[in-house]
TrEMBL record:
Pfam families: PqiA (PF04403). The lineage of its organism: Bacteria, Pseudomonadati, Pseudomonadota, Betaproteobacteria, Burkholderiales. The chain crosses the membrane at residues 61-80, 108-136, 157-177, 183-201. The keyword Transmembrane helix applies. It comes from Cupriavidus basilensis. This is Paraquat-inducible protein A. InterPro entries: PqiA-like. Keywords: Membrane, Transmembrane, Transmembrane helix.
Length: 216
């Protein structure tokens, strides 16, 4: 019997390109070819394994640029103007954060800043960093780390929740003052729609595309 030889896994990594593990229950499955629009589900828990979405990232790039433009408009311009007995006041996202800080509500201000500015902007910038080189058929540095960071960051972006809160507040304020929608309110509404379309794209689909057509 030949002697047992111990191999260094780091020196000779073993990969299984045709196997995929479920992110919800860790069940391992054999990958199968799918038609356009089809999805593969886990046999154990029913979770999504992967979907056929070749070149879906190309549709995300114009959406990402549009979302960034709308985000800048939403952050820079007033959300609403209120006219109360001849006195006009403007409210913007930055002004709301400053009011929370001035009102000794720093934890709430930090939470609003993180969920409406920090995390959504971080996700958009990371996606843009990935999509532009991939559109040129190049591998962006730090691809794996950024895809995982996007997956962890996405649940914390709550711009749509903020938009619902703004609409509820405007309805209540309209009973005591004249409410005039600002530029940021319309851009926030458009941004919410664009983000809803973007959220239908799973960043894990980028892995599938890279395995099928590795960039130069």
């Amino acid at each position: 019997m030949p002697p047992f030889v111990k191999r260094d896994a780091s020196a000779h990594p073993v990969s299984f390109p045709h196997l995929i593990a479920c992110t919800y229950c860790d069940a391992v499955h054999q990958q199968a070819d799918l038609a356009e629009g089809e999805r593969a589900l886990c046999l154990r828990c029913g979770g999504l394994l992967y979907r056929e979405s070749q070149r879906a990232y190309q549709r995300q790039l114009p959406l990402m640029v549009t979302a960034l433009i709308l985000f800048i408009l939403s952050s820079a311009w007033p959300i609403v103007e209120m006219d109360l007995k001849g006195v006009r006041t403007e409210t913007s996202l930055r002004g709301a954060l400053q009011a929370l800080c001035a009102g000794h509500m720093m934890p709430v201000a930090i939470l609003v800043f993180a969920t409406t500015i920090l995390f959504p902007l971080a996700e958009m910038l990371m996606m843009l960093y990935l999509l532009v080189p991939m559109a040129l058929r190049r591998m962006p540095p730090g691809f794996g780390r950024l895809v995982r960071a996007i997956q962890r960051t996405r649940p914390w972006g709550m711009l749509e929740v903020f938009m619902i809160g703004v609409l509820v507040t405007l309805v209540k304020l309209s009973t005591i003052a004249r409410v005039l929608p600002g530029v940021a309110l319309w851009s926030f509404a458009a941004l919410t729609i664009v983000l809803a379309v973007m959220l239908s794209f799973d960043p894990r689909d980028l892995w599938q595309y890279l395995e099928e057509e590795p960039p130069r």
